[in-house]
């Protein structure tokens, strides 16, 4: 029988049963499919350690360049705002009288409040009878200065690059807010301004201390026509996108007297958390409570997702407010970090390749991050405050091992026994990857494993099975590539 190429479509397919994932990649960790081959996600190394300056997990990261070309990093936790300079030195710049928040989400229903298992049975708790999200920050830059707003505190702050002084409240700015962005037109949008869940207020153009509308300025406000609450917003080319927990809106600059026009561009597409949105030139992408969505320039719509059921079943729904999205522009990917079941911190990811239109999944403990640009590599931070530079080729992945495993591979209709005698590898480094085979004669049969086998040379094999799964696993740190491997297999009988 001729050699059989093992040519599976890129990305992970995690829909339905294991057999429904036949001839697709079924599971993976820290691998991507890019330009026709499978390869490892780049490794990482420590860039800076801000752990001495924080007491809670970072929930927001912002990187920007000042007017002297210096690189600056800001981290926001439930308890503090921290600045990290280009040398990696961390400084606490938390505003005076800052109202700290909650590191973890909770449900407070008075008697028996919080999540199951917390506290003593029968002990009454005082509460507001509502979900309390894990608090986070909105961070942006106003020129070379940092502007910030924490969900727990509600005030708008500015930090003017002086480590001797903490961030200070912006004069005349609204309070009881839940976030901010700086628009392309140089306005600050204050989200949920004054505690109104539907209100957006903006300052005068180029003046973040003038917030009272008048005929002589462009300050203003609006209450969105939505039955939800504003969650987050982001800049796009020529406009800004605003997401609530139920719908999506676009703000477009029009000039005086109305300054901004607002249009609802999607319904039933609410965002899962305040940090689950990424906006790029091509559009915007976000995670909802049970689906993924995108704005394509005209309307918001649900994205087909081949790992959707797996991700939302895997997620700790009680801690969904910790979901954080980052853009990995080098590979055209959007990554969402989320806490898995049994974890209260982000320890898993799902990523979407918008250039090649496929999905990937895996494990990594990162709570916030920023794309490359100011720095040559993406900067992601873990719950302890250690900042790592990622996508470094030729170095390791910590305690994690990159791998990919397929669903069942069958001959014909799957009713024929496959007798495999040889593997012809197709791997660039010839030795940085091992291959294993897992066989069954029917879906509920006991699985048998053969291997691992090196991919340095053609290898003789000897096993049979009606269903065969392939596992590719990294053994070193080189930037390996796996193409189309082939097996020498012949059809046996049906028994």
Write the layout of secondary structure elements.
Layout: E1 3-6, E2 25-29, E3 31-34, E4 37-40, E5 43-49, E6 60-65, E7 71-76, E8 81-84, E9 90-92, E10 106-108, E11 130-132, E12 137-142, E13 145-150, E14 157-159, E15 168-169, E16 179-182, E17 188-191, E18 199-202, E19 220-223, E20 230-236, E21 239-244, E22 247-255, E23 259-267, E24 277-280, E25 283-287, E26 292-295, E27 300-302, H1 308-314, E28 324-328, E29 333-338, E30 348-353, E31 358-363, E32 368-370, E33 379-381, E34 386-392, E35 403-406, E36 418-424, E37 433-440, E38 448-454, E39 459-465, E40 467-474, E41 485-491
Antiparallel strand pairs: 1-41, 2-35, 3-4, 5-34, 6-7, 7-8, 8-9, 10-11, 12-13, 13-14, 14-15, 16-17, 17-18, 18-19, 20-21, 21-22, 22-23, 24-25, 25-26, 26-27, 28-29, 29-30, 30-31, 32-33, 33-34, 35-40, 36-39, 36-41, 37-38, 37-40
Mean pLDDT: 92
Structural class: mainly beta
Overall CATH class of the largest domain: Mainly Beta
Give a quick account of the main beta sheet: strands, pairing sense, barrel closure: 5 strands, antiparallel
CATH homology superfamily of the largest domain: YVTN repeat-like/Quinoprotein amine dehydrogenase
Query: Which segments are poorly predicted (pLDDT under 50) over 5 or more consecutive residues?
Result: none
Helix content: under 10%
Total helices: the number is 1
Order of strands in the sheet with the most strands?
2-35-40-37-38
The total count of strands amounts to: 41
The gyration radius over C-alpha positions equals 25 Å
Instruction: Write the CATH fold name of the largest domain.
Output: Methylamine Dehydrogenase, Chain H
Q: So what's the overall shape? A: elongated
**CATH architecture tag of the largest domain:** 7 Propeller
Total domain count: 2
Beginning-to-end CA distance, first to last residue: 19 Å
Percent in strands: 35-45%
